[in-house]
Amino acid sequence: MRVNKPPLALYIHFPWCEKKCPYCDFNSHVLDVGGSAKLDSELETLYVDQLLFDLDRDIEDFHLEAQISSVFMGGGTPSLVSPAGIARLLEGVDRRLPIASEAECTLEANPGSSDQIKFQGYRAAGVNRLSLGIQSFSDKKLQALGRLHSGAEAKDAIASARRAGFDNINLDLIHGLPNQNTDDALTDLVCANSFNPEHLSWYQLTIEPNTVFFNRTPKLPSEPEIEDISAQGRTWLYDHGYEQYEVSAFSRGENHRSLHNLTYWHFGDYIGLGAGAHGKLTEHHPDFVITRTRKSRVPNDYLKAAKRIATPVEPAELKLEFLMNALRLNQGFLLSQFTQRTGLASSALTDFLDAGLAQGLLIRDDQNVRPTPRGLELLDSLLLLV
Questions:
Q1: In sequence order, which ranges of 73-181 are alpha helices (DSSP H)?
Q2: pLDDT tens digits, the chain, 386 residues: what are they?
Q3: Is residue 292 part of a domain?
Q4: Which of 34, 237, 305, 379 has minimal CB crowding within 10 Å?
Q5: Residue 131 domain-assigned?
Q6: 146 prior amide bond cis, ω within 30
């Protein structure tokens, strides 16, 4: 069976934040350098050096030679890094593995940690897509989330990004916030839309283990209230020109979908660099093997050694891993894509497809398999059929 290599993306993690938000379960660490929550030039230089060393090792060990199709710099708060540091990093990556000329290059930024001068520097460094962690425009809701910025600062950050030349902007918004009602959630969408962003990531707040909110959960909207917020929000977004192409992702047309995130959802390959970063890499010779990689989680440990744990994905796990990603997409996947990305015959899905179709959670049009609207809402239940 011939299996083509998937596109190769690059994820780069910056682990530091000025403050740990009470709902956040990402690998983020409060920055404290000599009593300051600012990233000094020495630490920045050391970290960029280690990222490039980390990349050199992955290239050698996994025989990587493809072009990079997309870059995503996440965190933590990547916008704590100077434009010069981002430029040196991207130049170093491009010398080792060429970044495709049409590649999407995203940097996450928080209002308050960036200004127009910084945004202009990122744009000059090669960043062509900005993802702003707005979360809400309501001061009360931002305070409840433990965010450092205000609604006014959120608006200023978006305007500054536009003035800096960014014509591809994603805004992160969270709904289902403490004491939020449907009108509150729609007000955030109206405000976001006034800036005409190319993409919105509209997530429901979830309470995760090892967070402050897990131990001291605030009063959240009820399930019926959440359902109403979600339904009315999706309708509002559709009516205002946004298409939902993934569980939480809305874009102004196909050209503004997140190419990097589509790599994940299409079960593509990606290098993971940085403290706590995860990667997925496919090797074809002598055998077809998919390997998950994970880097040292604690920033100081990463700076010392950048240890890597590499774990082959067992063939028995491949079906579920593929479906967990591909069924997040409204358009689903092609059966031929399942074979290309897993090395398994499409017949391995027969029982799952029969069960999903029988329960009204899946649609199959010849070679395309996709979730029904109900299947998308009940994705966890759908995956239990695997």
A1: 83-96, 116-125, 139-144, 151-163
A2: 445 678 899 999 999 999 999 999 999 999 875 545 578 999 999 999 999 999 999 999 999 999 999 999 999 999 999 999 999 999 999 999 999 999 999 999 999 877 899 999 999 999 999 999 999 999 999 999 999 999 999 999 999 999 999 999 999 999 999 999 999 999 999 999 999 999 999 999 999 999 999 999 999 999 999 999 999 999 999 999 999 999 999 999 999 999 999 999 999 999 999 999 999 999 877 788 999 999 999 999 999 988 999 999 999 999 999 999 999 999 999 999 999 999 999 999 999 999 999 999 999 999 999 999 999 999 999 999 99
A3: no
A4: 34
A5: yes
A6: no
Q: Which residue has the tokens 């280690």?
A: 50
What are the two backbone dihedrals, phi and then psi, of residue 58, each rounded to the nearest 5 degrees? -65, -40
The CA–CA distances, whole Å, from 294 to 13, 62, 193, 237 equal 12, 14, 37, 36
Edge-to-edge strand order for the sheet containing 243-246? 243-246, 249-251, 199-204, 169-175, 129-135, 99-109, 68-75, 8-14, 269-273, 278-283, 289-295, 308-312
Q: Based on the domain organization, do 249 and 340 belong to the same domain?
A: no
Name the pTM for this structure: 0.95
Domain identity same for 133 and 233: yes
Cα–Cα dist 170/152, whole Å? 18
Domain span including residue 343: 315-386
Structurally, the chain folds into a number of domains equal to: 2
Q: Residue 225 corresponds to which tokens in the numbers above?
A: 């209230």
Cβ atoms < 10 Å from Cβ of 45: 14
241 and 323 together in one domain: no
Q: Is 144 inside any structural domain?
A: yes
Token readout for 264 is 């994940």
Q: Classify residue 255 by its DSSP letter.
A: G
Whole-angstrom distance, CA of residue 39 vs CA of residue 18: 9
Same domain flag for 154 and 27: yes
